[in-house]
Write a structure and sequence with these properties.
heterodimer; A: alpha/beta; Rossmann fold; three-stranded antiparallel sheet; 9 strands; B: mainly alpha; 2 domains; 74% helix
Chain lengths: 253, 371
């Protein structure tokens, strides 16, 4: 059986004014992979996610999810933004924030009810925040903030998860806990696409990878393309992980 | 009480109080969203921008009619909002710069028009300049009716779209990905904010109106961590400011109503910033002092414990004088420790740790803090 592609991007170009931020990107992501998007600062990693989700309007290109355009399959896709993108002093509780993930499906005007509440409580339990339901979000630590964001995504019961730097500024325990939840999603044949910075954990966490620096440098299975050659192409010639004794794949001969 | 009876018994005062409390209520309610969306300055731009709208409404219709003024002001305010958000989106100009330019441009244009109208020979032209600083005394029954209807519509829309507005205010990008039409919502919310400002112009004036949008909401945020409670409280603070401002000026007719309303709302803000539980300055200061004292006690207890550990018997008697070279020694701390039953003091000015003191010290060392 041929696996459908979770995400397919053709010739995607994004420009702010006349400066291209992403240029002519082609990308095919199979269903059920955990994919890292890596690249230096300003490579357009966040912009790639945002333009795919139509938060930023691309100037050219087509994007399909499971073979369909975004607007017809929106409920199957969820987005976990960088946690610094919101005001954590907003007057709301953990439970309420997680419930916000259910609002889109509810439609306008309708109020969330028991079903939504139950979903939210389950998601909160899954991310290990039981007991924090009534907590003010301003009192959460960085790791807890990231867990709440993940819970808000989980209640959407999506098939494709976009995450923008999910491990930014959180401790090792939380990172491991989040990875465990994501791996469970993968086992359920969900797809996760995450912007990731820590090249040391690529092999451990991800099985698929895309190298990005305005243009796409390479994409594929981590075991095939996570090579010094691609890292140098992406980050510059002076970059060499092996020299620092890091764990990377050997370049294919 | 007399105060309220006085307001209610006089017809003119009653009309004005009704109008100003309505404007307070609505600006408090919509200000909640403006404050949470960090759009505090937008209110200022809308208020100033409405001036040319009012002037143009008069020039086009040739009559002084509140409804036309409302409509003119709302359209001009709305254009300013759209213009600002367009500029910020499509150029490198930042929001604050765009707002400042919008305020100057629209207000300047408005002043030119108002002066022009005043200099044309038209018996009807007087009174337009009262929109600058507001003149609550000019409120008529018809004005109150318009205000009441708009207020009712605003409240109903806010209640119906409560969860959508919450999404928009907290995380619009995520909301967009859940299928909520952010653009339409943004237009609706901004329009309601424009309306809230416009219905207050006649009483409070172009210059001070933005304060009515921000002050009640900023004060309300201090007292609660819940969005619903914040909106209700902000509406009440606005309403209270309206009634109190009107009341004060009915006792002191030389004082203008609009600015008094704004001053009352600023007074509420000051009280809230100082005395609100948890977020208030006083509460924060007390909390800091308390934790400072606790840390001092903890570190003293640990120091005593460490001295005692040098002896085979942890309850070995020591002279108080031995403590004096310690960096954070003071008599009050020693007294506090003995009051809490952590050490005992003998008459010979000797001290020793109690059982409770020893267990506490061990726990502090283990947990890195007593609570």
């Amino acid at each position: 059986m041929k696996k459908t592609l979770a995400l397919q991007i053709h010739d995607l170009t994004v420009a702010y004014k006349f400066k291209p931020v992403l240029w002519d990107i082609d990308l095919s992501v199979p269903t059920g992979v955990m994919m890292a998007i890596v690249g230096p600062n300003g490579a357009g990693k966040s912009t790639l996610i945002k333009s795919v989700l139509n938060i930023v309007k691309p100037v050219a290109g087509t994007v399909t999810f499971f073979g369909k355009p975004y607007h017809s399959i929106r409920s199957k896709i969820t987005y976990v933004p960088q946690k610094s993108s919101v005001d954590w002093d907003f007057p709301t509780t953990v439970l309420d924030l997680v419930m916000m993930g259910t609002y889109g499906k509810l439609g306008w005007i309708k109020r969330p009810g028991k079903k939504e509440r139950k979903l939210a409580l389950q998601a909160i339990e899954k991310v290990g925040l039981t007991g924090f339901e009534r907590q003010q979000i301003s009192q959460l630590s960085g790791g807890q903030q990231q867990r709440v964001f993940l819970a808000r995504a989980l209640v959407q019961q999506a098939d494709l998860y976009f995450m923008d730097e999910p491990f930014q500024g959180i401790d090792a325990t939380t990172e491991k806990a989040i990875i465990k939840i994501l791996k469970e999603l993968i086992e359920d044949n969900k797809t996760v696409i995450a912007v990731h910075h820590d090249l040391q954990t690529i092999v451990e966490y991800f099985d698929y990878i895309a190298f990005l620096n305005i243009r796409k440098i390479a994409e594929g299975k981590v075991e095939d393309v996570f090579t010094n050659e691609n890292l140098e192409k992406t980050y510059g010639a002076s970059f060499n992980l092996a020299r620092h004794g890091q764990n990377i794949m050997q370049s294919p001969v | 009480m007399e105060f309220i009876i006085e307001i209610l018994s006089d017809y003119t005062t009653r009309t004005i109080a009704l109008g100003t409390s309505l404007l307070g209520l609505i600006s408090g309610l919509m200000g909640t969203w403006a404050v949470l969306r960090r759009q505090s300055l937008l209110g200022d731009a809308v208020a100033h921008a409405s001036l040319p709208g009012i002037a143009l409404a008069f020039l086009i219709t040739g009559v002084k009619n509140s409804l036309f003024f409302f409509i003119g002001a709302a359209i001009a305010g709305w254009i300013a909002t759209a213009w600002v958000s367009n500029i910020t989106r499509n150029t490198k100009i930042k929001t604050d710069t765009a707002l400042a330019i919008a305020i100057a441009l629209f207000f300047g244009f408005g002043m030119v028009l108002i002066t022009f109208i005043q200099r044309t020979p038209n018996a009807n032209q007087g009174g337009l300049e009262s929109f600058l600083f507001g003149q609550a005394a000019t409120l008529l029954r018809e004005d109150i009716l318009i205000m009441a209807i708009t207020a009712a519509i605003t409240i109903i829309i806010v209640l119906l779209l409560w969860k959508e507005f919450k999404l928009l205010a907290f995380d619009p990008q995520h909301a967009h990905t859940t299928g909520v039409n952010i653009k339409v919502l943004d237009i609706i919310l901004n329009s309601l904010i424009v309306i809230a400002i416009v219905i207050g112009l006649q009483s409070v004036g172009v210059v001070l109106m933005s304060a009515m949008l921000i002050a009640p909401a900023a004060a309300a945020r201090q007292w609660t961590d819940r969005l619903g409670a914040m909106a209700i409280l902000a509406s009440l603070f606005g309403l209270l400011s309206g009634i109190a401002g009107t009341g004060i000026s009915s006792f002191a007719p030389l004082l203008p109503t609009g600015p008094l309303i704004v001053l009352v709302s600023i007074f509420i803000v000051t009280i809230s910033f100082l005395f609100a539980p948890k977020r208030g300055l006083v509460a924060q200061y007390t909390l800091k002092q308390k934790s400072k004292k606790r840390i001092a006690l903890d570190s003293m207890l640990i120091n005593l414990f460490e001295i005692c550990c040098q002896h085979s018997d942890p309850q070995h008697l020591h002279s108080v004088n031995i403590l004096k070279p310690m960096p954070d020694y003071n008599k009050a701390t020693i007294k506090k420790l003995s009051e809490q039953g952590l050490i005992t003091l003998t008459k010979q000015k000797e001290w020793c740790l109690t059982e409770k003191g020893i267990t506490n010290a061990r726990r502090i060392i283990k947990n890195g803090g007593s609570s």
